[in-house]
Amino acid sequence: VQLVESGGGLVQPGGSLRLSCAASGFTFSRYGWYRQAPEKERELVASISVVGGASDYAASVKGRFTISRDIAKNTVYLQMNSLKSEDTAMYYCNAVNGRGSYWGQGTQVTVSS
To answer: Is residue 29 packed enough to be buried (19+ CB in 10 Å), middle (13-18) or exposed (0-12)?
Structure first.
């Protein structure tokens, strides 16, 4: 199983970024994006079911972030708009199936002027 994230970087407050996570090795039933800021616990940002596309979001990102998936490409995206300095963190992709839960290596998002 391999999860490869991309799309992180440095952006000014109010800007946008789109994260991608390409999964390979198995099919998955649910994807999630988590983030971890320095000296803080990892937290769930958004998750989505592969079948049906039902999604949910952390209160702190609702209305600003959108999670989506491309079933054919085994890829999940996180569109992040109106970014704030408090969104600065390492963002991790997570994928779940009947065999277990899998993590990517993470991609850094820094929001700063």
So the answer is: exposed
Cβ partners under 8 Å of residue 61, min gap 6: 45, 46, 80, 87
In angstroms, the first-to-last Cα distance of the chain is 37
Q: Which residue has the tokens 């992709």?
A: 93
Residue 38 φ/ψ, nearest 5 degrees: -55, 135
Phi, psi of 87 (to 5 degrees): -85, -5
Tell me the pLDDT of the chain (113 aa) as tens digits: 899 999 999 999 999 999 999 998 888 999 999 999 999 999 999 999 999 999 999 999 999 999 999 999 999 999 999 999 999 999 999 999 999 999 999 999 999 99
